[in-house]
Amino acid sequence: GEVDFARPDRLVLPPAARDLFEKPWAYLLCDDMREDPILRELPPVSVGLRSSLRVPLLRDGRTFGGLNFMS
Predict the structure, then answer these.
(1) CB 70, CB 49: distance < 8 Å
(2) Dist CA 63 CA 51 (whole Å)
């Protein structure tokens, strides 16, 4: 079935996540977002989504965003 949740216009990154924009990374894979101290607070977890694959969006070698797949 379909899963829906309120998507914020802006997501404030906690200090622990700042490295995602300051250091290079290829992907982030999380088997269970409920177990992650940062991800467990996000709206998708409250509606039952558990796994997450994130890849960075790069411009001139710098991260300006990310693409996230969840199930």
Answers:
(1) yes
(2) 22
pTM: 0.72
Query: Is residue 5 within 8 Å of residue 47, measured between CB atoms?
Result: yes
Residue 33 near residue 39 (C-beta atoms within 8 A) = yes
* Residue 28: CB atoms within 10 Å: 15
Q: Extract the tokens encoding 37.
A: 């101290």
| DSSP state letter for 20 | H
pLDDT tens-digit map of 7-61 = 777 767 778 777 877 888 899 999 999 999 888 888 889 889 999 999 999 999 8
Q: Which ranges of the chain would DSSP assign to H, the alpha helix?
A: 19-22, 43-46
